[in-house]
What we know:
Layout: E1 5-9, E2 15-17, H1 20-30, E3 33-38, E4 45-49, H2 50-61, H3 68-80, E5 82-85, E6 91-93, H4 96-101, E7 107-112, E8 117-121, H5 122-138
Antiparallel strand pairs: 1-7, 2-6, 3-4, 3-5, 4-8, 7-8
Amino acid sequence: MFRGANAINMDAKGRIAIPAKYRQRFHDACANQIVVTIDLFDPCLLLFPLPHWEQLEAKLESFSNTDPNQRRVKRMLLGHASEHEIDGNGRILLPPVLREHAQLEKQLMLAGQGKTFQIWNEDNWHNKINDDVAAMADMPLDADALPELSF
Length: 151
């Protein structure tokens, strides 16, 4: 499981380094084979270990080629998917088109989402968190619309 928000930097070539604490997990989960694509709802990227991506990809392959919404989701996720291998220094190179989509600059946030990570422009990440906190204050959560969360 990937959790937590980590401040990371992107170098001038568009490379990011995966924090050391996650590298063994990537090695164990996917032999450092990953897929990066765009998020459908926010200006960020999604980073998947390859086996998890392949599960999503199988679901996308069952989508209709005639339904406009299903075609749109398939086009956005598969059309932007980019396969990578985490190198010996724990780095990956993010393609320019993905960096542009997510407005990535030097300072980024790598946010764990369970089986995936989101990669954010640091300013956009903080703005999104502030928006989320404000939305929760303005509109209480609908407990019936959420899966069971007992802790």
